[in-house]
Description:
Layout: H1 2-31, H2 34-85
Amino acid sequence: MVQELIWEILKIGFVAVGVLYVLEVLRVYGKSDENCQRSLDRDVKRLLIRAGVVLTGVAVTLSRPVLNMLIEASADVGEWALARHN
C-alpha cells in the first residue's frame, strides 16, 4: 500500500517535471532570436523522436504480459474446442 502510494507520487512528480520543462522551453523559445529558434526547432524534433522511441519501447514491454495471457487463453480455447469435437 505504501509502495503504491510512493509510485503514484513519483508518477505525478515526473508528469509535473515534464510539464515544467515544456513550459520553460516555450518561454525560452518565445524570447529567443531566429537562429536560436531554428536550433530549438531541431532540438524539439529530436526530443519528440526520442520520446516516441522510448514510448514505443515501453508499449512493447508492457504489452508482452498481455499478449502472453492472450496466447495462453487461445491455447485453452483450442484445447477445449478439440476436446468437444472428439
